[in-house]
């Protein structure tokens, strides 16, 4: 009886190092070889020598994302330069005295 009580008490009072979802995700599954095949295909796509930079190898979505980022950066730089130019004028230039 005391062995059973010790076992139950030990199980209730000790905290496991990990939780069960993490343990379940670490176990090998029957779908693991398929994901490994997909990963190898993706690695081959990114490692091929086709002259494109790595940030454009995923297709049209990467090109659109890259172009919109460059356009947004250029627009931001132009707006900053415009603001600096407007604020650099002396006050006499800003008001029409005539």
Describe the 3D structure.
Keywords: Membrane, Mitochondrion, Mitochondrion inner membrane, Transmembrane, Transmembrane helix. InterPro entries: Cyt_c_oxidase_su7a_sf. It is found in: Mitochondrion inner membrane. Belongs to the cytochrome c oxidase VIIa family. The protein is mainly α and 98 residues long. It has a domain of 37 residues. The chain is elongated. The model has no long low-confidence stretch (mean pLDDT 79). The protein has 5 helices and no strands.
Poorly predicted parts? none
Number of helices: 5
Proportion of beta-strand residues = under 5%
By secondary-structure content and strand pairing, the structural class works out as mainly alpha
User: What is the CA-atom radius of gyration, in angstroms?
Assistant: 31 Å
> Mean of the pLDDT scores?
79
Please provide the ordered H/E string of secondary-structure elements: HHHHH
* Distance N to C terminus: 105 Å
Number of strands: 0
Into which percent range does the helicity of residues fall?
55-70%
């Amino acid at each position: 009886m005391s062995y059973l009580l010790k076992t139950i008490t030990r199980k209730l009072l000790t905290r496991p190092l990990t939780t069960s979802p993490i343990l379940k995700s670490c176990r090998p599954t029957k779908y693991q070889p398929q994901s490994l095949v997909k990963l190898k295909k993706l690695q081959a796509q990114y490692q091929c020598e086709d002259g494109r930079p790595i940030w454009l190898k995923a297709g049209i979505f990467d090109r659109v994302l890259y172009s919109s980022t460059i356009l947004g950066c250029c627009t931001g730089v132009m707006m900053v330069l415009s603001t600096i130019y407007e604020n650099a004028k002396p006050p006499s230039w800003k008001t029409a005295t005539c």
